Amino acid sequence: MQDTSAGAGRNWAGNLEYGAARVVRPRSVPELQELLAGGGAGAGGTGRFRALGSRHSFNDLADTNGTLIETDGLPVVIDAGSAPGVVRVSGGVRYGALAEALHARGLALANLASLPHISVAGAIATGTHGSGDRIGSLATAVRAIGFATADGSSRTLQRDDADFDGAVVHLGALGVVTAFELDVEPRYEVAQHVFDRPRWEAMLAEFDRVTSLATSVSIFTTWQATDTAELLWVKQRTDASGPTPAEETSAFVVERLGATPADRPRHPVPGGATEATTEQLGVAGPWHERLPHFRLAFTPSAGEELQSEYLVPRRDAIAAIEAVRSLAGRIAPLLFVCEIRTVAADPLWLSLSHGADAVALHFTWRPEQAAVEALLPVIEAALPETARPHWGKLFALPAEELRGRYPRWADFAALRERMDPERCFTNAYLERLGL
Fold first, then answer.
1. Cα 325 to the chain's mean position, in Å?
2. Which among 86, 136, 152, 337 could disulfide-bond with 33, CB atoms 3.0 to 4.6 Å apart, if both were Cys?
3. Tens digits of residue pLDDT in 99-116
4. Sign of CA dihedral 9, 15, 20, 23
């Protein structure tokens, strides 16, 4: 097992330096279990652990003053042959590698996030999502989840188990994920169509129609203008599950929303290099090369950046968008781009879309953390009281208010108490939440 006390380095965005006394990279699950059972002894270990995947968290969710466990050293397992409709995946796999392996086997996931570079375990633990009126977050694909727990033992929870809905989106509080079983389906193709300058008034008047135009729909805006957004990004499955033909979609967008079809590829951030984006202009291609906004081979960034995101129940979507729109003059100077998209409801206790179809408002900020953190309370006060911030991104919502937005919070706290009574996986982030 690789072991270093030279410092854990920084997160993906560069805005956080990890405070761990020790960083380890186990090479096998037994090695990981032995480490946990030993309580982090040696090399400054404090008996506290956190798992670290692709470092794509913008806050201290994955940090610790104890031992950071880098999961990318664990053996890669992608087994799609054991049962129909299921893939077994090891804990350190990233979505890009998983997607390519599935596609080569004639299989696919129902959804992917904007970036294929993120780890499966980290994305699921934080409720990270893709987009689609009828598609749940990435966590909804989980059929079973396996943990290495604080005493070094293994525990697997399956979809029918009583605690399963609490264990999937787990914030790293229950153990280190060693394996998943995920739902898969036959591979399919997707075509992307991008439209310039849709009108806000028209989109808000027919918001349900807009978000149901295709498999996945995103609205991108810089809030430099409040009458139009920059882009309407439409990802359409080309098989029978697609909701409307491309011709009908284009006609509606042009005639009713006042937008124009893009004549060349677009980047979500105005002026961004389009070589980094997945292919557009209606050219159909493999699901894993179209559902993400960015290509796996390119660094997915406009440079150093910060991110925040809030999900609101669909019934509150228009109020949330109008609230952000009213703050455009304060938001725009700090913003690279804002993306608005949808996520289907699920039963997972700490999911951002628990219990209701949701609309996500995502902010990619310029790297001005003090100014962004000063603005976040203003945004949160303007949003509906149902808004839930993304667990792995910047937010300011007080813990008491945050806990109150999750009806199963007490059940999750009880589950954590049963699985980690010594609080070996607790850190400053979880302590602020009351865990």
1. 24
2. 152
3. 999 999 999 999 998 888
4. negative
Q: Does residue 352 have a pLDDT over 90?
A: yes
Nearest to 358 by CA among 182, 197, 188, 135: 135
Q: Which of 31-40, 335-344, 362-371 has the lowest mean pLDDT?
A: 31-40
Strand 49-52 with 67-70, pairing: parallel
What domains, with CATH codes, occur in the chain? 78-187 (3.30.465.10), 189-396 (3.30.70.2520)
- Mean pLDDT for the chain overall: 93
Strand partners, 236: 191
d(CA 370, CA 381) in angstroms, rounded, equals 18
Cα separation, 68 vs 248, in Å, equals 51
Q: Which residue in the block uniquely carries the two structure tokens 């796996």?
A: 296
Reduced to 3 states (helix: H, G, I; strand: E, B; else coil), residue 157 is strand
Tens digits of residue pLDDT in 34-83: 999 987 544 444 589 999 989 999 999 999 999 999 999 999 999 998 88
Asked if residues 4 and 51 have their Cβ atoms less than 8 Å apart, the reply is no
Which pLDDT tens digit goes with each residue over 214-226? Answer: 999 999 999 999 9
Q: Write down the pLDDT at residue 249.
A: 87
d(CA 287, CA 290): 5
CB atoms within 10 A of CB 204: 14
d(CA 60, CA 193): 37
Q: How far apart (Å, rounded) are the C-alpha atoms in residues 75 and 28?
A: 6
Residue 324: its H or E element: helix 317-326
For 138-181, the pLDDT digits (tens) are: 999 999 999 999 999 999 999 999 999 999 999 999 999 999 99
Write the DSSP assignment of 3-40 as a string of letters.
EE-S---B-TTSS-B---SEEEE-SSHHHHHHHHHTTT
DSSP β-ladder status, 388-389 and 86-90: unpaired
Rounded CA-CA distance 147/91 in Å is 9
**What is the C-alpha separation between 130 and 124, in angstroms, rounded?**
11
